[in-house]
Amino acid sequence: MGTVSNIGFPSVFRVPLDSQQALSKQMKNKSSCCFMVPPNHNYSIRPSPIRCNKLSESGIEENPTTTSTSKRPSKNKDRMEEYNIAMKRMMRNPYEYHHDLGMNYTLITDNLIVGSQPQKPEDIDHLKKEEGVAYILNLQQDKDVEYWGVDLQSIIRRCRELEISHTRRPAKDFDPDSLRNGLPKAVSSLDWAFSEGKGRVYVHCTAGLGRAPAAAIAYLFWFCDMNVSPKPSPYL
C-alpha cells in the first residue's frame, strides 16, 4: 500500500467542528477499541503479501468473459497510463496501479483489509472464502467505476448473495478536500461494521493507494489512538 501522507496528512484529519464533536461523542461511548488490542499497544501497519487473481504465463489476468482479445488490453493500458500520470501529478505518489493484474490488497489489522477495487463477482467470492470478509466499504465515485468498465451492479448482487454488506461513501479521487469532508461518514461506516463483528472489513477505492488507506488511518487515529505524528529522525 502506498503512503497516504502524500495527500495531505495529518491535515486531512482537520474535519468540520460538528463532525469532530459527533466523532468525539461516539468515542466517549466506547469502552475499548473494536480490535480488542492490549493497552498501550503500539500500532504498526503490517503488510501481508499482495494477493492477485490468477495470472497466465504472460502475466496478464485470465478473464474468460473478455470479448475482445485485441483492443481491450490496449485500452486498459491507455487508461492505466492516464491514471498513473494523474496520480503522480496530483498526489506526488510514486506508486502505480496495474488494473490488468487484478484486485490487490493488504491486511492492515486482524479485521481490516485495504485494497483496490473488486473487478468482477469472482473477486467477491475470493474475499468471502479466503479472507472472511463480511463488509465492504467502497469509496469510489460512479465515474471511477465507469472509467475502468467495472460492472458494479453485478458485484453488489454477488455481495447480497453472499450476505456481505456493501456500502458506498464516494469521495473524489486525487482531491484532499473531498476526502477530508467525506472521512467522518466513511469512518462512521467502518465503526458500525466493526461493531457488528460478523467478519473482516474490506475498504477500497480504485487503486487502494489514496482514499482507502486514508479512511483506514482515520479510523485507527480517531478510534484506536494510533499516533500519526512522524517519528523524529535519529540523524537530526
From TrEMBL:
List, for all copies, the residue spans of the domain called Tyrosine specific protein phosphatases. Answer: 181-229
- Tell me one GO molecular function of this protein: starch binding
Q: Which intervals of the chain are annotated as region Disordered?
A: 55-79
Cellular component terms per the entry's GO annotation: chloroplast
Claim: Membrane is one of the keywords in the record? no
Q: Which domain of life is it from?
A: Eukaryota
**Does the keyword Hydrolase feature in the UniProt annotation?**
yes
InterPro entries, sorted: DSP_laforin-like, Dual-sp_phosphatase_cat-dom, Prot-tyrosine_phosphatase-like, Starch-Glucan_Phosphatase, Tyr_Pase_dom, TYR_PHOSPHATASE_DUAL_dom
Ranges for domain Tyrosine-protein phosphatase:
104-236
> Mind telling me which SUPFAM superfamilies this protein's record contains?
(Phosphotyrosine protein) phosphatases II
What is the protein name for this chain? Phosphoglucan phosphatase LSF2, chloroplastic isoform B
Q: Which organism is it from?
A: Glycine soja
